[in-house]
Amino acid sequence: MSTRLEAEHLYKVFGRRPDEAVERLRHGADREELRADGTTAAVIDASFTVEPGQIFVVMGLSGSGKSTLLRMLNGLLEPTAGHVRFDGQDLTALGDRELREVRAQKISMVFQHFALFPHRSVLENAAYGLGVQGVPRAEREKRAAEALELCGLAGWEKSWPDELSGGMQQRVGLARALATDADLLLMDESFSALDPLIRRDMQDQLLQLQQTLKKTIVFITHDLNEAMRLGDRIAVMRDGRIVQTGSAEDILIRPANDYVASFIQDVDRSRVLTAAAVMDEDVRGDEAGCGCETATPDTPFTELCAISARLTHPVAVLDTKGKLVGRIPRQRLVGFLGDQQGEPEPCDNPRGTRDGMVIANA
Amino acid sequence: MPRIHFGDWIETAVDWLQSHLTWVFDIVKAVLGGMYDGVDAVLGGGEPLLMAGILAVIACWLRGLLPGTLAFVGLALIDSLGLWDDAMDTLSLVLVAAVITVVFAVPLGIWAARSNRVSAQLRPVLDVMQTMPAFIYLIPGVMFFGVGTTPGLLATIIFAMPPGVRMTELGIRQVDGELIEAAEAFGTSPRTTLARVQLPLALPTIMAGVNQVIMLALSMVVIGGMAGAGGLGEQVYSAITQLKVGLAAESGVAVVVLAMYLDRMTGALGQRVSPLGRRAAAKAAVAAAGRFRLAHYKPGGAVAVVGVVVLALVAGGMNQAGSGGGEQTAAGNSTNVGQGEKINLGYIPWDEGTATTYLWKELLEQRGYETDVKQLDPGPLYSGVARGDIDFQTDAWLPTTHKAYWDKYSSQLDDLGAWYGPTSLELTVPSYVKGIDSLADLKGQGKKFGGKIIGIEASAGMMGTLNKSVLKAYGLDGEYKVVSSSTSSMLAELDRSIKKREPVVVTLWSPHWAYGKYDLKKLKDPEGAWGKGEQIHTVAHKGFDKKNPTVAKWLKGFKLTETQLTSLENDIRAAGEGQEQDGVRTWLKKNPGLVDKLAPVAGGAKKQGRDAGRAVDIGYFPWDEAIAATYLWQNILEDRGYKPNVEQLDPGPLYTSLAQGQMDVQLDGWLPTTHKEYVDRFKGQLDDLGAWYGPTSLELTVPSYVKGVDSLADLKGRGEEFGGKIIGIEASAGMMGTLNKSVLKAYGLDGEYKVVSSSTSSMLAELDRSIKKREPVVVTLWSPHWAYGKYDLKKLKDPEGAWGQGEQIHTVAKKGFGREFPELNGWLKNFKLTEEQLASLEVEIQKGGAGNEKESARRWMDTRPGIEDKLAPVTG
After folding, report:
1. Which residues of chain B have a CB within 8 Å of the CB of A107?
2. How far is B275 from chain A (nearest CA, A)?
3. Which of B182, B187, B192 is opposite residue A115, by nearest beta carbon?
4. What's the complex ipTM?
5. Of A253-267, B168-182, B599-613, B636-650, where does mean pLDDT reach its minimum?
6. What is the CATH number of domain B424-522?
7. Residue B333, pLDDT above cutoff 50
8. Could you tell me the CATH superfamily of domain B83-273?
9. Searching chain A, which residue's CA lies closest to the CA of residue B188?
10. Which of A327, A325, A336 is nearest to A302 (CA)?
11. Domain A272-337: what homologous superfamily?
């Protein structure tokens, strides 16, 4: 499967003489230096790829440049330097008209504050993108109604946006994005404005939809838990640069630097980590030989702990075909929880293995 | 600081534009004027109440039944104030201005919303448009486009534009950026984003801007009126400048009604067109349902359209019928010299200007011209005439008052001569201000007047004279400050001061109606500082005499005496506000033949005499046959192209002036008895043109209910019955001498009766009074006299022949009259009236009442076709 979306050395500089600023950045100048000159480097040398059907989460604090990065992906902002390739097509080389065509047909977007048109009904809002595509009215309304139904809004077609709750409004926003049948969905902090419970519902619904629709999604968020929950791959941004790209586990287990490490400190690992992340892949082959409980690579951490508590030996991890892919000794589980991933140090006291209290006292 | 000659640059620029870009202005004028005419034809074309109905149906559709009804009531009120046409003119003006403004303002606002640079550059321009006093561009507007709707429209557009632009920009900028981004993110093109997202969402704000545009446009119509834009503005302006507070208030009410209608309608329209507004309205309607349902009933769009169409069709149909009728009446008039040619008149709202302008409007319309009259300030008026937008104006005070304008435009103007003069300029105080009779008396009295002289417009020439020479000549320049305001403010101040009996000194001029209304004292000018009096000229644009030779000829011959002017002004004032032309008609009716005199039609109904154009001074004393004959001849002479001046004098002065040649002729010489004295005294200095009536008889007369008195002899011994009095006439009359000297003696009445000499009119009043009370009375009377027709009277017989023989009524002229006026001399020599003719003529005049003698004589002539040609035959 080829890459759906590829960002290659993207730069975005606001202010005077942006090209010159890009040159300086390439030679190692940092953001603060440029700011002194009155230019703002919003995105610096961002590169990543997104595979079809993936949810790619860009995470960062406000001001880190993630929204700017997102807007370069569909050409709302023109990169100062670098390229965006979508299905192999270089968007940065397109003229306005072709770019609009691409946006209308292939890329849709969901906004933080929903951005529903207050002068259009729910149905008309959902049908907006189709209208731009030039789909005839009857078909447009049919497809918009389908999209609304998909998002759980059947029966609300005739309502007006301001009559809906925040969560429902964002479902309309989602339905509007889905109705166009775009391959790529850009979501800009789409759930940030919602209450925590509703946000969770929406995340669940997005994941559920994704299972059937298999869209390629670039999702922007400042909420690490959300990033971990949704993201197949996560890019962490800081001060305009992508500091680390990887899966949730990668980031949690192998933070690229102190910033990422401090960032992930508060994350509830037990809810993020799965067997695949914690297992020891160095297996002898007979761990699953007994009739004991086993785990799959997707088994969540909390469940692993429960299994491990019921067994006397490490938990065996089998993939969907029943092939042994790893083992998880109890000590390893405890180590991940405490962010301590080395081998245990040997103890001088022969009883030490039995009585941790003594070791601690010694 | 060096003086920056910014003003000069502007003048140069204006001059350059005027000479080089005329075609641009002509196009603009054609477009704006065309739009206005079109809209006005639609709005002003229909029957007022039907139009009001159409507007009310629209109100009903937009806002509901109750507002619709109120709209109809308000509009009907305008019609009942007689301001409908003006209101429709104004409405057209406002609508055209608003449409053009919106057409420019909305795109400009959009442009400004999309570009910060444009917005920043536009802002100061809008500030200038909004705050620059409108006069400043109104006057160049007149220079470029001439007087009329165009400069008014343009000024309105300029003034009303800023809120339109600003509100559009604001509305678009207020649209949530995320929505625009959303539209863009779905691939919407900028233009579609504008149309589908920005404009619909900005629409409530834009409509608020449109509302403001319309309201500002309406507030500008008064200022537009100063440039001749017409409509209610002109009414308000002309009313205010003439202190007609009532008319101004009426026009003001009409403006307010229009304003409220337009405000509510645009507000409702804003709600209708914007989707958000529609939703809000729907919600409100649901909330209000149940209560006042009928009042808030709104007809559906279809119902409203049907209503409007039906009313419009009816209006159109009636219009068609109306215009058909109008054409028929206009056809077949031999005096239709103008053939519908359009003549534009302008006037300054000074009384004599108003009077003569409406006089000419009426004259020209009688001659088949179409006229358009505009009230203007002197500046726009002169530039309008210079441009040729106005054909002529009759109120040019030269050489002083309008010197500045004359100097500026003299190359583009033609002076058609003075029709009145000399006038005088003066300072005036109310007559209760004692001790101040001359300008010199003002010195040292500055405190009394607050150190102020209330002036008129600073631009008036007399203000310059006042400041430059008058004050200096009397050493008043330190003590008094001349407050320049406007004529109307000056008059208002005068009125206020007189009401409070405060001392005040104002600049005024003669002729002016204020002298008739208030008791004022002109301050003498022994130094002659005001200079010589001025003449009031008629001024036309260059080449008017080639374009309109007939009218130019009439205007060149135009003259009014002070009597004529003041009586005309009085009639116009009596006719009331806004009815100037009716006043003129009344006045013309009182002055029959004047139409033909002022606007003679070559080869028309009236034949000119050989000496046409010559002035003839006719004197008379107020005896009935004298009045009758004199006014008869005045009519005849005017028809023949003479310029008869009629003057009433006592017999003594009349004969004296005839003898001295100051007066040309009089028609009431009673010879040989009554006027014997005069004729004897001026023997050789008078020409007797022969008798036109006779014999007359003199007699004493009693009402016929006085029984037993049939002859003079019967009076004897009955003196007590009559109070011992014989009611006589003027002591100077010859018959009074005869009565005293011979009649009383012949019948032995001189101890018993006393002859009370009074006047003819007192005698007749006494007779009337006595008859009403059926008291016995004896009066001196003569035949012919209309009293014999009116009352049942008995002439007392004169068996002794004491009254002498009957007299003849002669026409007496100055020496050499025959050489000077050979034609008229011939006519008068052959002049004869029968008793029946004279009696009927006198009765006609009696019926017409005092002041209408000439009109009455004309009526009498009209009942006797051919009499004119018989009395004043013209050969060829």
Report:
1. 185
2. 6
3. B182
4. 0.79
5. B599-613
6. 3.40.190.100
7. no
8. MetI-like (1.10.3720.10)
9. A132
10. A336
11. CBS-domain (3.10.580.10)
